[in-house]
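Pair request: fold both.
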Amino acid sequence: MNNADENKAGRAGRYVRQLTGYRAFIPAPLPPNPPLDLGAPLRERLSAADYALGRLDGAVLTLPNPDLFVFMYVRKEAVLSSQIEGTQSSLQNLLAAEAQLFDPDTPKDVNEVANYVRAMNLGLERLRELPISVRLIREIHAELMRGVRGGRLQPGELRTSQNWIGPAGCTLATARFVPPPPHEVPQALSHLETFLHDGAGLPPLVQVGLAHAQFETIHPFLDGNGRIGRLLITFLLTEKRLLAKPVLYLSHYFKQHRAEYYERLQAVRDAGDWEGWLGFFLAGVEAVSREATATAAAILRMREDYRAKITEHLGRAAANGQRVMDRLFEHPIVSVATVREWLGITPAGANQIVARLEAIGLLREMTGYARNRRFRFDPYLRLFEEAAE
């Protein structure tokens, strides 16, 4: 290995043998040194990602009520990010649980996904008064881990013991990666916070990509690090005004390319390959931005199609049909009782409206029961489910 390769290999940090014999990684502060090579390949990726992100931002702002649509984008990200960590719950499971329409077949881990949504919303709310910081990250972690699997592992508290990453049953000696020992974590996070605030003059998307990788390397909590690291991407995109609304479900790309995602992160630590990681990250931003932009356009088309169908097929009940559809964007899984409450009509009237909306394909019954039936806003949910597949 020549000097240039040695310098590059060590610019992300170094492995240090601990007293008990295992080797832990001590990350170097950002930005990388020697500096990033932002030559033609990365510049082109950055330009394409910036352009795609800008188009997504504009597309979402053309929607009739952007905040209603953010509701679904956030939940899609929550489901996908949680699935990377092994949860089984689907978007439909999450929405049914949030609507308090419980099914005995719902996976038990749905609460973990619901916590992700709450952690996301808490972070976005807190960003109005608090910059991204260690304090904010700890608050979000406490919300993410409250009352769920791993919830006994110090929610909101930096770890005070060594953790490691690898296949089930591995040890510190055989782990794929060992993050810094606990006494190094506060300083590593302090350096990361400093970088988040000054950015070293790097393009904002590059800063976001570097910060995510560095957080995953520090692994400051006993559980939930992957999900917090992916939440950090969303918070940074909104804080840096790269997106007006949190509508980039980047976990879709990470899940699709899961092996490469972990390989790229590990190549940063082992070989200092920040450029390889950033190329992967920026390609993901571009791909998912384009997909989410297409989803926004499809939402508009679907909405207009069903407005026309309601007007054509529901006759005098069309006004109530339109009111139900408008509410479904925020509550995509409903019961007849829910519709009755929205419209202030009799049970028979609510049943009739639901049946007519089912007949035109706006609603689809999802339980198969004769009683206590539930209906999903099928054309809308399919737009998000098909993209996830």
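--- second member of the pair ---
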Amino acid sequence: MAEESIIVAGEVVVDLIAEPGGRYRPVPGGSPANVAVGLSRLGARTQLLARLGSGAFHRLVHEHLRGNGVLLDYAVDADEPQTLAVVSVDDAGHARYDFYADGTADWQWSPDELPDPLPDGTLALCTGSIAAARQPGSPALLQLLRREHERARASIVLDPNIRPRLLDEPRSTRAYWNTLIELADIVKVSDEDLAWLDPGFETEETVRDWADRGPALVVATRGDAGVFAVTSEGVEVSVPAPAVEVVDTVGAGDAFTSGLLDGLRLADLLGAAGRGALTKISAHQLEHILERAIEVAALTCTRQGADPPAASELERTGPA
């Protein structure tokens, strides 16, 4: 029997972190890569489906991913360079990203580079952020999502994590994400993403609307205000955020996604066998899973950079 695993598809960005004296320290990141690392640290067998760029940062990226236990069986060693992001953090710990992304490896997917079908034992396919919506490679990822949605074996998980400056004009990008949402079983989205994707509507209103359009579960993170979630059966849960000493928020949303997916995995709510059970999840069980995911994100905020915790660091270690 094939080992169960979660596949994360998307970019690996090298973050150039500003340090005193005008120097920059290269740190592998990018939302999907951060999610994969977070899942692996929590104990989930995780594959990263990514195009890993050539050049000066190739070895750094490989060592980071393999050193964190992320499997690269389906990753592509690409000829193009790695995407770069210059990261600056304000006094409140909030990060700003300036990307150098033209012609880089992450957006050049072709259909023949993606597994067809996904390997047996795949519990979930998680994607989002830039690679899921940036040309020229996004149509290949959309084809993969449609194919796996029709096969209905792996749960389809989306985290938009929008970077507007790297995407097409707003109207077409919003229409594209509407298509992706209808293919998903689980959507995790930040309130900032919602404000851009569905301007003029309250977070709760949009989350309820999305939960009526296909996903079994939609979860919105709201920073200090905590988390709001709705299921396709109309179960609604709000969970507050704990007070922590914030160093910075880099990777916090990705850490939450890792914690959410891992909690669903531990509760047997992913994959073909878990799909029906997820639609029937109780408010109590969902609240427990969300509290654990918030703890994962909160611990990440107490550290510099995208540095998610291991399972051994969590108070909430498993299903309710």
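Observation on the second member. Residues 149 and 183 are 6 Å apart (CA to CA).
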